[in-house]
Design a protein that fits this description.
Layout: H1 2-16, H2 18-39, E1 46-50, H3 57-66, E2 69-74, H4 77-89, E3 96-100, E4 115-118, H5 125-135, E5 141-147, E6 168-170, E7 177-184, E8 191-193, E9 198-201, E10 204-207
Parallel strand pairs: 1-2, 1-4, 2-3, 4-5
Antiparallel strand pairs: 5-7, 6-7, 8-9, 9-10
Length: about 220
């Protein structure tokens, strides 16, 4: 997607330009604060951010706002390398860990994370979300960003039924991020009903046929 390449270019510039970094960080600040409130994130949480990019603004802000430990992954080795160098330059290496890894990997210790955050650019989001949901422990909170309605064709996104009735926070000031939805993994045996109104079994998700609210489509 060209939008991902464009985002990478902006982040690359932000690494070298203090003013641009501040502007971009300020842009994400309100978004992250809304997400912290939505998921009730505290310093006791252990956060996994999937899709950190070259300059992992959200991962940095999650740590700065809450004091929680954060692991950020990106499947682009060049992005991960630059992100790690930048984190170390900020002196945050002990609190924000950067790994070159794919969200669909079985090597990640999903049982260690209490919050998993999905960036807007994660693709294919349905496959990654399903994989993560299957491997995290019950009560783990999954935060999924959704684009503004007029930008939804630019991003790969989850089918609406999968997140139907999930708690949501909207981001009025953000230009491309429309909302973030909160999905909480529930206790289950072979099959369960989650707090978003979609059932899940070993064969995958089976969302209800009721459509998602128009404002979040």
């Amino acid at each position: 997607m060209w939008i991902c390449s464009f985002t990478q270019k902006i982040e690359d510039l932000a690494l070298e330009t203090k003013l641009l970094y501040k502007l971009a960080s300020d842009y994400y600040h309100d978004v992250v604060k809304n997400e912290v409130v939505l998921a009730n994130i505290t310093r006791h949480d252990n956060i996994l951010c999937i899709g950190g990019g070259i300059c992992p603004f959200s991962a940095i802000l999650f740590n700065q706002v809450t004091g929680a430990k954060v692991t950020v992954i990106d499947n682009n080795s060049c992005c991960a390398k630059k992100a790690k160098a930048f984190i170390d330059r900020l002196g945050l290496g002990d609190s924000v860990k950067v790994i070159c890894q794919d969200g669909g990997s079985t090597a990640l210790p999903f049982d260690e994370y209490t919050v998993v955050h999905f960036a807007l650019q994660v693709s294919p989001i349905e496959a990654v979300f399903t994989h993560v949901e299957k491997h995290v422990t019950p009560s783990t909170k999954l935060l999924v960003r959704r684009p503004k309605v007029h930008l939804k064709k630019l991003y790969n996104h989850l089918p609406s039924p999968l997140l139907h009735n999930c708690p949501v926070t909207t981001h009025k000031k953000a230009r491309n991020i429309g909302s973030t939805l909160l999905y909480i993994k529930q206790e289950s045996n072979d099959k369960k009903m989650d707090n978003c109104g979609a059932s899940y079994s070993s064969n995958g998700f089976h969302g209800r046929k009721r459509s998602f609210r128009r404002s979040l489509a």
